[in-house]
Design goal:
Strand order of the largest sheet: 1-2-4-3
Order of helices and strands: EHEHEEHHH
Largest sheet: 4 strands, mixed
CATH architecture: 3-Layer(aba) Sandwich
Number of strands: 4
Distance between the termini: 23 Å
Helix content: 40-55%
Radius of gyration: 14 Å
CATH topology: Collagenase (Catalytic Domain)
Number of domains: 1
Number of helices: 5
CATH class: Alpha Beta
Structural class: alpha/beta
Shape: globular
CATH superfamily: Metalloproteases ("zincins"), catalytic domain
Amino acid sequence: MISFFNEDISMPDLSIDKISDWINSVISSESALTGDLNFIFCSDEYLLKMNKEYLSHDYYTDVITFDYTENNIISGDIFMSIDRIKENSEQFSVSFDLEVKRIIVHGVLHLLGYKDKTNPDKLQMTSLENIYLDNFNK
């Protein structure tokens, strides 16, 4: 089941059903099954606190993914900073809506086992993000 929540901010205006269908198609195309996925929108400060507490990182980030996947059933909690998403959309001159979807699929790709710590891994993840974002409107 795919669920969307908000913590200390207002829920962004999203097409929940369409995004849920898209997430299911991304997971299916990677030969996996959808389990329990929670997408939680929050502020920079909320995510910074989590970054410090759970990852010992003292910096802002746009997404933190907690992976509970077992037996190829993709499950997890994906926390996303609305503040970072807004800033990213301005920095990269893309719509807020597109950047939200990019961060959503980025988190899903992490749950599917993709990494982004090295340059080759980042290139692969960005390429997959672009492919899946293109598929969203098809």
